Structure to design on (330 residues):
């Protein structure tokens, strides 16, 4: 597969902080590729370098065959980007926002009109084209930003946390637009997210990034296969360290991780193991308060590789902070 993006030891420093640490990537043409990690992991900085917004400190990168340092104008011609924070002009209509973007790319008037019709139809906003953006809902604004990123027929589209702060129903509709876009037009899409379900649903491959490093890269399904079997979460009273020591007798337990107040077990045949765990917990003086069984998710994969989970409550707190800043700005 021909690659749309390649990096070699791509690195970014901010003073003493290493935000991105020697990242090597190869993203194929037409691939929907995810960068998954918590806030501050280096995801946005990575795509900012690839889209020529930030200069790299060291290393190299190519997008559409063009060097991100030496051929910046050519890189910008072939990419679209949807930023993490809103960047629409709310005093203009949806149509006017798209027209302005087309003018920046030197698109002639007839092509701007034709293309805006196409992208508005794609994201379901044709009937709201003449409505001021300040009257749009959050989901409508996000869809318009995706439409704007597509105006000039980019070969590569960067989506930086595209559903941040949106309600679950709107998030799912945005996912469907992204999938349709990738399937229909064969556009290479680079998606950053800290939502496990988003990466799992959308991405062909996922790179887990933490503290500026890519710590693992695979398909969502292969990631979950590596974690393997079943996941049992146990919340027990008493000393959890004692209970963990007691678990060593069970050969079907592959891995035990402390996650906040719970033990997370990677096991084989979890349904047959649960009664034995309950009995053993009583013997160890740590009776089980709650227990659950399920198949692995990308959350478990992140926990497997880092020893900690991406907390949804932390993400929601960040979302709320962003929303409050937006409201203050208005």
């Amino acid at each position: 597969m021909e690659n749309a993006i390649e990096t070699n030891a791509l690195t970014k420093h901010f003073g003493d902080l290493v935000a991105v640490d020697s990242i090597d990537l190869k993203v194929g043409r037409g691939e929907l590729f995810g960068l998954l990690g918590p806030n501050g992991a280096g995801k946005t900085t990575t795509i900012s370098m690839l889209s020529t917004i930030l200069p790299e400190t060291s290393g190299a990168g190519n997008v559409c065959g063009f060097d991100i340092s030496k051929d910046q104008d050519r890189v910008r011609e072939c990419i679209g980007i949807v930023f993490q924070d809103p960047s629409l002009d709310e005093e203009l209509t949806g149509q006017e926002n798209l027209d302005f973007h087309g003018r920046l790319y030197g698109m002639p008037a007839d092509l701007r009109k034709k293309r805006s019709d196409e992208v508005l139809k794609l994201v379901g906003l044709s009937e709201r084209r003449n409505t001021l953006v300040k009257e749009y809902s959050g989901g409508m604004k996000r869809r318009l930003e995706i439409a704007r990123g597509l105006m000039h027929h980019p070969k590569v589209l960067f989506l930086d946390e595209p559903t941040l702060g949106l309600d679950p129903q709107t998030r799912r509709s945005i996912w469907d637009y992204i999938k349709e876009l990738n399937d229909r037009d064969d556009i290479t899409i680079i998606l950053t997210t800290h939502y496990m379900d988003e990466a799992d649903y959308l991405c062909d491959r996922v790179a887990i990034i933490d503290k500026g490093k890519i710590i693992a890269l695979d398909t969502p399904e292969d990631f979950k296969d590596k974690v393997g079997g079943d996941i049992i979460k146990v919340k027990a009273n008493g000393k959890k360290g004692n209970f963990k020591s007691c678990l060593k007798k069970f050969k079907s337990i592959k891995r035990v991780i402390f996650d906040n107040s719970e033990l997370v077990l990677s096991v084989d045949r979890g349904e047959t193991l649960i009664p034995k765990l309950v009995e053993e917990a009583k013997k160890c003086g740590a009776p089980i308060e709650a227990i659950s069984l399920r198949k692995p998710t990308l959350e478990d994969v992140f926990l497997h590789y880092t020893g900690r989970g991406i907390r949804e409550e932390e993400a929601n707190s960040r979302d709320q902070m962003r929303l409050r800043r937006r409201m203050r700005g208005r």
Observations:
- The longest helix spans residues 168-185.
- The CA atoms of residues 109 and 255 lie 61 Å apart.
- The longest strand covers residues 3-14.
